[in-house]
Design goal:
alpha+beta, Arc Repressor Mutant, subunit A, 5-stranded antiparallel β-sheet, 6 helices, 38% helix
């Protein structure tokens, strides 16, 4: 039972999948980053707080799930010279994991986002309209919305948001107005 004084907060565990198989999660990302930083599986495993065998088994599992190598290794020996580095595929997976994790974390911490999807938002802050024009820049996009009142609203949002929401002229959207800016919601 939840007591009245307890506050619940959303949390998540992120996995990247390929062909419906888990490829990469937080632990794998930490191991790959440590290997990349320290140049060897042994040093990377130690820095990530896992055994060499655990790190090698995890990487092998990633490679088997995705079907491509994640590491390029060099043999060492008594004179040294061994090491490991991430393949281009592994680097892309780590970057994608970090990008998605950052985005989801930001959304989970944004109380105003939760309001825009229907939790405690007042109707006066939402205005439906038709997208009349989308102007995509390098980072932001300007979306002009014709509302049922004799007026239009222009929202400046990220280009990524326009592409994620697949906003096109003729779409029916809602302008969600908060104290400092106009956001866009789409069913």
């Amino acid at each position: 039972m939840i007591r009245k004084r307890e506050t619940l907060a959303p949390s998540f565990k992120l996995w990247l999948e390929a062909r419906e198989k888990h490829v990469l999660g937080k632990g794998g990302v930490e191991i790959l980053k440590a290997i990349q930083r320290y140049g060897s599986i042994t040093a990377g495993a130690r820095r990530a707080g896992v055994s060499y065998k655990y790190a090698w088994d995890m990487i092998s599992g990633m490679e088997n799930a995705f079907g491509e190598p994640f590491l390029q290794t060099r043999r060492g020996g008594r004179m040294g010279g061994g090491g490991a580095e991430l393949t281009e595929v592994a680097v892309k997976f780590v970057k994608e994991y970090d990008r998605i994790e950052k985005h989801v974390s930001r959304v989970l911490k944004d109380k105003e986002y939760w309001e825009t999807i229907g939790l405690r938002i007042s109707a006066r802050n939402r205005i439906k309209g038709i997208v009349k024009h989308v102007n995509k820049g390098d980072v932001t996009a300007s979306v002009r919305i014709e509302v049922s009142l004799p007026a239009s609203i222009t929202a400046v949002i990220t280009r990524e948001a326009v592409e994620d929401l697949k906003i096109e002229p003729g779409d029916t959207v809602e302008a969600v107005i908060k104290a400092t800016e106009v956001m866009i919601a789409k069913d």
